[in-house]
């Protein structure tokens, strides 16, 4: 039931005593009413969905729209993404499906598996440098952050000569501590950079994702020039910070669970399942999963009137009793892969296979090459990013 007299403020943050768990208030809500109204900073009162089955029901139902221009869409930040910004994650089928089809061929299991040697090379290169420079090191700046941006740079076809500029521009848009004006300016720099890259590919196409989008779509009228730039930007933004945060947080979590770490070391074949369990347990995408009811729909016994917004809280859904002993980290969990840390339904993460492979290689190599890896500071002193859209950690000082 929707008890408007008890509307709670949104968002609640994860508790510093238990940073890997969802906000304790959401757990309480899930037990009481997994679909309930909350009040946002702008005074709006969308529904918050905290249960696993309810979250899947919303994300898997085309009567809920992801259209970012919809009036009822929850506004997570004051930073207004201009309406003309073209974003796969914020549009509905059939247009969404049309664009997604242009990209899926680049993210298939086969294509991604073939990228393993390239990814392994990048991981080894980063660790070679980290080891050569000696302890201490910052696992975020020296390992977790550069890895996904180098991988996506290879996929998009960024030349080695351009990589430093590419990385500077992409870091500008990743810094969530900056003001909205600074964020807008950083986005502008990135758009300029990607636009120039597109112009170069137009003149001399290669065999990379960006060249393919230009040759197969832009030149045949499937996408405008602006849409190609926006799509490249979405891939970069969606895949960089998320994967980086998962690598850093997974490393911290494993170091905090020596018995699970020992299990993984003893059985490297456990890695694919372990990565899914880490994705479930941490669930970094903690904000930003919003939808709007396009018609009246009932979810979890609650009537959602047409035009109302919903926020789907993935961290809480992934700790639902659907998972036995949901608060235990169990790298061998039989149904770990049922988590919805990559979302669910038509918008389910396009890059999930790539993210899984990056995580598997990064963690396997890190643990193998640095068997004595340890945190240099107590967990309490780590700068966790409680308030950002994606949960993360700013620095992870380590030694070995
Ligand atoms: C969508 C999580 C890595 C590209 C999503 C969604 C989630 C997610 C939860 C769905 C959001 C929604 O339904 O509103 C993650 C996590 C990652 C990760 C946890 C890393 C651990 C990547 C990578 C790429 C990528 C590496 C690509 C290079 C995308 C795109 C979408 C998406 C394009 C939008 C898909 C659509 O709307 O059809 N991701 N992601 N992600 N992700 Fe990821």
From TrEMBL:
Q: Which SUPFAM superfamilies match?
A: Cytochrome P450
Task: Supply the name of the protein.
Answer: Cytochrome P450
- Top-rank taxon of the source lineage equals Bacteria
Stored Pfam families: p450
Higher taxonomy: Bacteria, Bacillati, Actinomycetota, Actinomycetes, Kitasatosporales
Q: Which InterPro entries match?
A: Cyt_P450, Cyt_P450_B, Cyt_P450_CS, Cyt_P450_sf
**What family is it from?**
Belongs to the cytochrome P450 family.
Q: One GO molecular function term?
A: iron ion binding
Q: Does the keyword RNA-binding apply?
A: no
Q: Does the keyword Nucleotide-binding apply?
A: no
Keywords tagged on the record: Heme, Iron, Metal-binding, Monooxygenase, Oxidoreductase
Species whose genome carries this gene: Streptomyces malaysiensis subsp. samsunensis
